[in-house]
Amino acid sequence: MMKKTNQRASNLPSECTTIIVGDKMTPDGSRFLCRSSDFDAMMAINYEFHADTNHGPREFIAKDSAFRCPLPEVALGYTGLPDYQFPGEWGSAGFNTAGVGMSSTETIFSSKEALAFDPYVADGLAENCTYNIVLPYIHTAREGVERLGALIEKYGSAEGFGIGFIDDKEVWYLENACGHLWLAAKIPANKYYVTGNQSRLRDYDPEDKENFLAAPNLIEFAEKNGLYNPAEGKFDFHKAYAHDCKEPGHDDFTYNYPRVWGLQAMFSPSIHNDVTKNTFPVFAKSEKPIDLQTLRTAFRFHYNGTQHDPYLHNNGKEPWRPVSIFRTTQTHIIQVRPNLPQAIGHITYIALGMADLSVFLPLYQGVQSVPKPYTLGNGHADELSAYWAFRKVMTLVMTNYNAYAPIVKEAYAKLEKENEERQREFESDYLAVYKDAPMKAQDMLQKFSDSLLLHALDVARELQNEIFTRLTSDIQKEYLFHGA
Predict the structure, then answer these.
(1) At what angle do helices 438-478 and 401-433 cross, to 10 degrees?
(2) Which of 32, 72, 273, 398 has the maximum number of C-beta atoms within 10 A of its C-beta?
């Protein structure tokens, strides 16, 4: 998501960074769909679980917009990560019980020229509803694209957005264009994709149904309205429909381009991109396999150690927008490992708050609940909720980032490494029993998940006390007033 004021109870801009990785770009055949959700640090995120039902709501009625639409009565169970104010909306990320994952949404912008011919629909499909009216009703990633595309065509879009879908076979990414048009591309297995608040898709071959899906009149509409001239070459979706940096009010040069430039430099250092030009490849090859640790590092990126590192230089006015910012509410890394049973092969790694100063914790698709603290956050700090346990640590650190951040980073790196070892041991035990004793395996999974999440809270609270102790000592040294 990007610089705009939405209808949630805050006037801060909302924005995101998305990374998607094909299965031939990873060391173990995993595929990834990942995004940071950057909005307002006061907006606590809670874990949410919905069960399979044959008697679900027949209509979706948005809590914070005028949008509504009918729904199928039969709905799959699914997980979500909504803002505390809007349970059942703003689901953001997770899996359904058919094993399809979704990440919704990355804010993007259509050009004023395209919107002149097909404007946004004020009460149409917006970011608040896309997740909860799609994920419970799909059984594949491709179905997700098809359902979302049909909804865009029927109700119109209220704003620009990019949305990803993932399953055991493929990953798809959809970008809408103006009010009723859209394009989706399957992520190449041997490539990765990164974006920061930009419509980035370009190629579209309407005959290639294997790799593209789109509104049926996508090219014809552009040609009819002077957005595309066939005499100038092949159709370019971005050129036809997306805003470019020449438009006033958009800050691609400092807000969007540097994130894509920085992440592609991390994954593909031999690509010599110009940070001031939108010539970044849409899909690129990484020079090394991209694994979970690589992605955690990517979402903690803030031009580390350079002149543009705002935390190193204590510069809250740094013009280059980092990937990791304080008002991130959560970052998710959705991983699919097709060679494992769905219950443990599909994982959403979630870092509550600012990824640079948080810890990525696994939520296995087969888990049916989480410890209560992960469901309790609201807009005021407390002693009970998980969101505020992690947020308090990062808030204390930001009083003196260079002094305190290394303490937190070391503790969370140790915890992530320990969790990985625990996961390997648990998954081995799970595989040994799940076929012959599925209920026992389910109980094992739930108990294991609860133990990891509760232990992470213990670590966060220990860090609160450690940083608070050091901060107290540092302040005393500054204001000692000793002697005459």
Answers:
(1) 170
(2) 32
Q: Hey, how many other C-beta atoms are within 10 angstroms of the C-beta on 153?
A: 17
Identify the sign of the CA torsion 203, 120, 147, 127.
Answer: positive
| Mean of pLDDT over the chain | 95
Q: What is the pLDDT of residues 431-461, one digit of tens each?
A: 999 999 999 999 999 999 999 999 999 999 9
Residue 15 — pLDDT band, cuts 50, 70, 90?
Answer: confident
pLDDT over 50 (residue 313):
yes
Neighbouring C-beta atoms of residue 85, cutoff 10 Å: 16
| 16 a catalytic residue | yes
Q: How far apart are CA 25 and CA 396, in angstroms?
A: 37
Q: Please tell me whether residue 481 adopts helix, strand or coil conformation.
A: coil
| Unique residue bearing structure tokens 């012959």 | 436
Say which of 16, 34, 129, 178 is annotated catalytic: 16
Give me the pLDDT at residue 329, please.
97
AA letter at 146: E
How many Å apart are CA 156 and CA 232, to the nearest integer? 30
CA distance 440 to 202: 49
- Is omega for the bond preceding 306 within 30 degrees of 0, making it cis? no
**Which residue reads 């209509």 in tokens?**
59
Strands 212-214 and 78-80: unpaired
Q: How confident is the model at residue 337 (pLDDT cuts 50, 70, 90)?
A: very high
Give the length of the chain: 484
Q: Which two tokens stand for residue 23?
A: 């299965």
Greatest Cα pair distance in the chain: 85
